[in-house]
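Handoff note, outgoing to incoming analyst
You'll be picking up this chain. Sequence as last confirmed:
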Amino acid sequence: MKEKNIAAFFAILAAALYAINIPLSKLLLIHVDATMMAGVLYLGAGIGMLLWRLGSKALGNSSEKAPLTKKELPYTIAMVVLDIIAPIMLMFGISKTNAANVSLLNNFEIVATSLIALMLFKEVISRRLWFAIFLVTVASIILSFEGTGAFLFNTGSLFVLGACICWGFENNCTKMLSNKSSEEIVIIKGFFSGLGSIVVALFIGEGIPELKWIVAVLVLGFVAYGLSINFYIMAQKDLGAAKTSAYYSIAPFLGVAFGMLLLGERPSLQFYAALVIMLISTVLMAKDTIELQHTHEHEHTHTHEHRHGDVVHTHEHTHIHSHLHTHDEQMDTHENHKHTHGGLEDHDHMHLTTQ
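Most recent structure output, in case you need it:
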């Protein structure tokens, strides 16, 4: 019980560290241009995780996992490119709307991830998750209008929604790397996506900020992305993927609270309507995550979980097959089993869930 309480603390800490990113980024955007900000944030995550990994190896605490290979190269390149575009759009969104709106709109990433998984990978979405997706979409539409009596789009919200769509594609690319080292994936994302964004920033004429602001953004990147991911993984060891995901779903609402506390924001009435809808959808998604269903006659239903440095998404996937498998009750994973999808060749895979 003590281990599970500690793990729950780590899961909530992971959510809080990510949630602090949006209001602090809004403050730092006063001193750092948006594209440069996106690049330095990711670079901070990459540098921090590399140092963390080296430190773990020196202390003998690291666990070796399969490295990336040429087979995963297309997905790795797509992941890096999308991780250049998405955070730039997010920073522009943060600069043009309030932090509370941005925090809630981050839930739209779940919608994008689910629909892309359905269209490109033919993955099944449960009825409960469909309803949650509908609610998130409604709330996102509410947040996308200025609320001044006219149908005027909030351009900041549109940038955030664009970032969520990019991350939806990126989540599905990262899913193809899920049996590889999560630390290696974060390091690759951090360095390549971060440096890529910095090159774009310099190309479009953005200036290099003062050293103190560069250091501040690097630290924020390490804390909000690097450490958040690390604590999420630590929580999974004792809680399992589903419960950790449920705890982490509080991140957008913590982001709203931090925005109000740190920035003194007072959102409009339409924001609170969207907040209630988002709360209902989050409860539905958490239930969908935790209630793993298994039928033991030819049909087998389980959940797939996607990660992106920020948002976790789980949905049901059903296939018909016969196989032998073992369950680790703590990790909620299905490891190294063979199955056939609709006539495709049998293949080995491992479902590994990280943030």
